[in-house]
Amino acid sequence: MSRPVISVAQMRAWEQASWAAGLSESAVIARVGQLVAQRVVELTRPGQRVLLLAGKGHNGDDVRAAQPHLTERRVDLLHVQDPVADLPRLEALLAARPAWVLDGLFGIGLNRPLDAAWCAFVQRINDSQLPVLAVDVPSGLDADIGEPQGAAVRARVTLTLGAPKPGLLRMGAAEYAGRVEVLPEIGLSACPHTSEINWTLPRDFTGFPPARPVTDHKGSFGHLAVVAGSLGYHGAAVLATRAALRAQPGLVTTFTTDTVYHPVAAQLQAAMVRPWTSEVNLPGAFSAFLFGPGLAAPDLPSEMTLTLRRLWRDVMEPVVVDASALDWLLLGPFPRNAIRVLTPHPGEAARLLRAPVADVLADRPNAVREISRRFGDCWVVLKGHQTLVGRSEGELFVNSSGNPHLAQGGSGDVLAGYLAGLLAQPALQNDVLHTTRYAVWQHGATADTLTARQPNWDVEDLVREVGNNSVLPPAEESPTP
After folding, report:
1. Any residues with CB less than 8 A from the CB of 183 and at least 6 apart, and which?
2. Number of neighbouring beta carbons within 10 Å of residue 408
3. Helices 83-95 and 116-127: crossing angle, nearest 10°?
4. Long-range contact list for 9-13, CB < 8 A, 24+ apart?
5. Nearest to 444 by CA among 410, 412, 406
6. Which residues, other chains included, contact 283 with Cβ-Cβ below 8 Å and sequence gap of 6+?
7. Rg (CA), the chain
8. Helix, strand or coil for residue 169?
9. How close are the terminal C-alpha atoms of the chain, in Å?
10. What are the two backbone dihedrals, phi and then psi, of residue 189, each rounded to the nearest 5 degrees?
């Protein structure tokens, strides 16, 4: 299951509860070392050099415990006791240009600013511009507030132990933490804590979506209406529709403006495509609706806006709103138990809240809560680094997949289409939060898979692959590359 985001004090209490239950601290360290080494092996090739930096405390013990499991790598281990005395040795080891540096200097127990000598030591690591894997937290970063204590290691990947810490989710911490990954099963007892904010794990989706009954037919899996595309933005309609088809609803019909009907229809074989006219009468026989991708031209028919507002206010079927159509909505309620989802990026969220983008980024959970409140307690997918999913009350979920290569035009159209294609299916409407989280995770995991395979993939690769990521049983899981 997902992991709660917990404070340093809660993490310490969890550890103490584990020791009181008879679990062994040394066994946990050994387990962590094994898992850290496994991740290093995934990131490197046999024969490559790896530099292990181990401090005095348990964070250093974790790194030291990884060394025996790196038998096919050229390992240099530096026990760092004195930053002044050990700096020349660090210089020499960095000059060898290891493939990765493991940071185990300071863990979550750091409770004071680093002095000048330690700041210089950390700065030398950062100046090398070598990829760093930080164990639990980048050394020098406050795990609760996400701010450097004088200085902090700039990691490319942070493997945090047991559960994520709140500081790692602060926007200002991203330049130090890099990609945050959670090692949930490190040998502690069951986590005794709960949290408003939770970290999504791939195993959350084991067995999802459920197997399709052999006697079902296309009518069993819903009919999605996609309203998308305008002059200059017809590609968004194509991407959203193709992504919706990847989710395998029974049918998809795309309504697009007359000016781009021909290029949209020419690129879609499995979807029905119709030009938007004043005679279009929604809801019709559709099981879900997507409005927004590519609806950015200045001369759109006014009936589109009015239709979206009416559907949002009146129908029980799911309505997903993305991109420019977010600005068409009016504040107010919708039918109780109806499914409504908004998918803004931070700039769109700022417009919905009439607030600066900086305010949205400074407190993203509050942004999700407030957008949901203003628009009738709808579900909100606040896109970006560590995408958030939730609504005005209840749990919020941080997505764990994805990478900066998703920052391409059309990526959001793929997510909106894939999500709407899932929500069009009656069997997947019973747990909107789970289905929405799954769509977001699959979207990000597809980007991770593509990046591991080829660094220069584009959004057309994304839409061809989205949904292909299988969820392994917990015992077989390994961190996403």
Report:
1. 32, 35, 36, 159, 160, 161, 162, 479
2. 14
3. 0
4. 10/193, 11/108, 11/162, 11/163, 11/165, 13/192, 13/193
5. 406
6. 225, 289, 311, 315, 317
7. 24
8. helix
9. 20
10. -70, 175
Q: Supply the pLDDT for residue 11.
A: 97
Instruction: Give pLDDT tens digits for 157-202.
Output: 999 999 999 999 999 999 999 999 999 999 999 999 999 999 999 9
Strands 3-4 and 288-291: unpaired
Q: Decide: 379 and 391 in contact? Cβ < 8 Å.
A: yes
Q: Label residue 189 exposed, middle or buried (CB < 10 Å: 0-12, 13-18, 19+).
A: middle
Residues in the chain predicted with pLDDT less than 50, given as ranges, are: 473-481
Q: How far is C-alpha 23 from the chain's CA centre?
A: 32
What does the DSSP 8-state code read for residue 294? Answer: T
DSSP H or E stretch at residue 159: strand 157-161
DSSP for 69-124 reads: G-TTSEEEEEE-S-HHHHHHHHHHHHHT--SEEEEES--TT--S---HHHHHHHHH
Are 386 and 169 spatial neighbours (Cβ–Cβ below 8 Å)?
yes
What is the reported pLDDT for 475?
A: 37
Cβ-based neighbours of 204, under 8 Å, separated by 6 or more: 1, 2, 434, 437, 441
> One-letter amino acid identity for 275?
P
Please name the residues in contact with 295: beta carbons below 8 A apart, sequence gap of 6 or more: 227, 228, 229, 230, 233, 304, 323, 324, 325
- Full DSSP string of 222-248: -EEEEE---TT-HHHHHHHHHHHHHT-
CB 352 within 8 A of CB 371: yes
Q: CB neighbours of 456 closer than 8 A, spacing ≥ 6?
A: none
